[in-house]
C-alpha cells in the first residue's frame, strides 16, 4: 500500500515540472519516487502503481482539455494516457521483481512506452512528453543530441540512479550500519552518476548565429473565448487585419523595421479566402499594403464534404503561391474516428459535423527577404508541434526557420498555451532553428535557437511579436539521428525482456515474491521475531 501511495505522490509531483509551475527539477525527483515505488512489485502491482501515477499526473495537467467540453473527454484522455504509464509500471515491475532497482531498465521502459503513447491510438498524443518540461534545465539541452526521447531517457536514468541510492541507504538503515562506519561508496556512486547526468547538458552548444531575417507575428485576438469563438469568424479575421494595418502604420512611420515575413496564426481566417470574396479581398488588400509575404492560417471548404486546416502563403501581386495542409488533424476535435461507435457513448461527437482531411506533404515556404535572404519556413499547425516526425520532416526538407501557428481560444485561461509554447522552445533547441510561435489569443513569442522565448504575450490580448531571428542551415545530431534513439531503446528493452524471461525459465526453486522489497524485509524480520 505504501508503494501505491508513493506512486500517487510521484505523479502529482510531476505536474510541477510543466507550465505553469515550471519547476523542472520535479521531473527527475518524480521519477526517483516512481522507480523506487515500482521496484519489486511484479507486473500486476506495477501496472496498478503506474496507472495511479499516470492519473495523478495527467488528470490535473490535462484539465484544459475539458474546459469547454466537459469532464468526460478530459477524464477519458487522462485515463488513456495513464494506461501507458501502467504498461511501463508492469514492464519495470516484472524486470525488477527480484527487488533491486535497475536504473537502465527503468529508463528503457520509460522511453519506449512514452514513444508508444506518442504513436497510438490514432497517431498518439505526445503532448506531455517528459522532455517538454525541460526547456529551462541543463538536461533539456541534450535534446540537440537525441531529441525528446533522449531527454526522457536521461531523466528516467537519473531518477533510477537516485532511486538506487535511496534503496541502498534504506538497506543500510535496516541492517543497522547507518552511521560513521557506514560504507558510503554504494550510495555515493549512483548519486555522483546522477549529478553528472544532470549537468551534462551544459556542455552541449546551442548556437544562435546566422543571417538574420525580420519577422512579424500578429496575435489578433478573438471576441470570445470558447468553442464558439469561430461563430464570429469575420470578427477574428478583421482583428488580424486591423492589427496588421496598425503594425504597417508603425513601419511606415519608421517606428518599426520592415518585416521579411508576416505570420498570422491558425484560424485567423476561418472564412475560406479561396471561395469567399470578402475574406479574399481583405487579405489581398493587407498583403498589398504590406508589400511583403504573409502566411495566413485558415480553413478551406475542401475536399467535398470535408475541411482543410491550412497555412496559405500570400505574396504581393501574386496571391496564394503555396499552401500547407495540416498533416495530423486532431482525433475527436478535427475528425471523429470510428464515429458510429463513439456516438453510442456521446452525441457530442457530431459537434464535428465534417472531418478535417490530412495533408499529404511537408510544408516549407520559400520566401526572399528584403536583403536577399532565402527564408525557408517549415510550417506546423497547432498540436503538430508535439509530434517529433512532423517537426523533423520540415527541417530535413530544408527549413531554416520554423513557424508554429496555433489557436488557443478553445482552451481559455488555462495552462494549455504555456505548455505549447514550452514545446516550441524545446523544438528550437532540438533542431537548432528559430521558431515564430503565433497564437490567435496568446501566448505568442519569437524563439531563438537556444530555446529562449522573446516578447511572450499575454492571453486574450491583441499583440504583435516582431524582431530579427537567425536563419540556420546547420543540422543538429538529433536531426540526423531521427528515430534511431527510440529504436535503439526498443531493441535494448526487448533484449532485456528476453534475457529476463530466459533467466526466469532456468532459475531453480520458487520465483521471487513479486512484492514490495522493503515490506518483504520487514515481514521477514517480524516473522523471525515471532519464531524466536
Describe this protein's structure.
The protein is an alpha/beta fold and 532 residues long. The protein is 46% helix and 13% strand. The chain contains 15 helices and 12 strands. A 6-stranded mixed β-sheet has the order 5-4-3-2-1-12. The longest helix has 33 residues, at 143-175.
Describe this structure in a few short sentences.
By secondary structure, this protein is an alpha/beta fold.
Number of helices: 15
Helix and strand pattern: HHHHHHHEHEHEEEHEEHEHEEEEHHH
Which residues form runs of ≥5 with pLDDT under 50? 508-532
How many extended strands?
A: 12
What is this structure's SSE topology?
Layout lengths: L1 H14 L10 H13 L3 H20 L9 H25 L7 H15 L25 H33 L9 H16 L11 E8 L13 H20 L8 E3 L13 H14 L3 E7 L7 E8 L3 E7 L13 H5 L20 E5 L5 E8 L6 H9 L4 E6 L9 H16 L3 E5 L5 E3 L5 E2 L8 E8 L6 H5 L2 H23 L10 H15 L1
Parallel strand pairs: 1-2, 2-3, 7-8, 8-9
Antiparallel strand pairs: 1-12, 3-4, 4-5, 6-7, 9-10, 10-11
Helix pairs in contact: 1-2, 1-3, 2-6, 3-4, 4-5, 5-6, 5-14, 6-7, 6-12, 8-9
Amino acid at each position: 500500500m505504501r508503494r501505491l501511495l508513493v506512486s500517487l505522490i510521484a505523479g502529482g509531483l510531476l505536474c510541477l515540472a510543466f507550465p505553469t509551475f515550471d519547476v523542472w527539477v520535479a521531473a527527475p525527483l518524480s521519477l526517483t519516487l516512481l522507480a523506487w515505488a515500482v521496484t519489486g512489485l511484479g507486473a500486476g502491482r506495477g501496472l496498478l502503481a503506474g496507472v495511479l501515477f499516470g492519473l495523478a499526473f495527467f488528470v490535473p495537467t490535462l484539465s484544459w482539455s475539458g474546459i469547454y467540453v466537459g469532464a468526460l473527454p478530459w477524464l477519458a484522455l487522462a485515463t488513456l494516457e495513464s494506461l501507458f504509464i501502467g504498461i511501463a509500471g508492469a514492464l519495470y515491475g516484472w524486470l525488477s521483481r527480484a527487488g533491486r532497482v535497475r536504473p537502465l531498465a527503468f529508463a528503457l521502459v520509460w522511453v519506449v512506452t512514452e514513444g508508444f503513447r506518442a504513436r497510438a491510438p490514432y497517431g498518439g498524443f505526445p503532448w506531455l512528453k517528459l522532455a517538454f518540461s525541460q526547456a529551462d534545465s541543463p538536461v533539456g539541452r541534450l535534446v540537440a543530441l537525441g531529441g525528446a526521447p533522449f531527454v526522457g531517457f536521461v531523466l528516467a536514468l537519473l531518477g533510477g540512479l537516485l532511486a538506487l541510492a535511496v534503496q541502498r541507504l534504506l538497506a543500510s538503515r535496516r541492517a543497522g550500519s547507518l552511521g560513521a562506519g557506514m560504507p558510503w561508496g554504494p550510495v555515493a556512486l549512483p548519486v555522483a552518476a546522477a549529478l553528472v547526468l544532470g549537468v551534462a547538458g551544459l556542455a552541449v552548444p546551442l548556437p544562435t548565429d546566422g543571417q538574420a531575417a525580420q519577422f512579424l507575428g500578429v496575435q489578433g485576438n478573438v471576441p470570445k473565448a470558447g468553442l464558439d469563438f469561430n461563430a464570429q469568424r469575420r470578427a477574428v479575421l478583421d482583428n488580424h487585419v486591423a492589427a496588421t494595418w496598425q503594425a504597417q502604420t508603425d513601419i511606415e512611420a519608421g517606428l518599426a523595421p520592415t518585416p521579411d515575413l508576416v505570420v498570422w496564426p491558425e484560424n485567423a481566417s476561418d472564412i475560406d479566402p479561396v471561395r469567399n470574396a470578402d475574406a479574399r479581398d481583405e487579405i489581398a488588400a493587407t498583403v498589398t499594403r504590406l508589400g511583403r509575404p504573409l502566411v495566413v492560417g485558415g480553413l478551406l471548404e475542401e475536399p467535398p464534404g470535408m475541411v482543410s486546416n491550412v497555412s496559405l502563403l500570400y505574396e504581393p501581386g501574386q496571391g496564394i503561391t503555396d499552401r500547407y495542409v495540416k498533416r495530423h488533424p486532431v482525433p475527436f476535435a478535427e475528425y471523429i474516428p470510428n464515429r458510429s461507435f463513439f456516438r453510442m457513448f456521446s452525441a457530442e461527437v457530431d459537434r464535428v459535423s465534417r472531418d478535417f482531411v490530412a495533408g499529404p506533404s511537408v510544408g516549407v515556404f520559400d520566401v526572399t527577404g528584403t536583403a536577399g535572404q532565402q527564408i525557408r519556413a517549415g510550417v506546423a499547425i497547432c498540436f503538430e508541434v508535439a509530434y517529433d516526425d512532423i517537426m523533423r520532416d520540415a527541417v530535413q526538407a530544408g527549413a531554416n526557420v520554423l513557424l508554429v501557428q496555433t489557436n488557443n481560444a478553445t482552451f481559455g485561461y488555462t495552462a494549455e498555451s504555456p505548455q505549447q509554447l514550452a514545446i516550441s522552445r524545446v523544438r528550437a533547441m532540438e533542431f537548432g532553428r528559430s521558431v515564430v510561435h503565433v497564437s490567435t489569443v496568446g501566448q505568442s513569442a519569437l524563439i531563438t535557437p537556444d530555446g529562449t522565448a522573446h516578447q511572450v504575450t499575454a492571453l486574450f490580448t491583441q499583440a504583435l511579436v516582431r524582431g530579427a531571428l537567425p536563419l540556420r542551415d546547420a543540422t543538429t545530431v538529433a536531426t540526423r539521428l531521427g528515430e534511431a534513439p527510440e529504436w535503439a531503446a526498443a531493441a535494448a528493452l526487448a533484449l532485456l525482456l528476453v534475457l529476463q524471461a530466459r533467466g526466469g525459465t532456468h532459475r531453480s526453486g520458487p520465483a521471487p515474491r513479486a512484492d514490495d522489497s522493503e515490506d518483504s524485509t520487514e515481514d521477514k524480520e517480524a516473522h523471525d521475531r515471532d519464531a524466536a
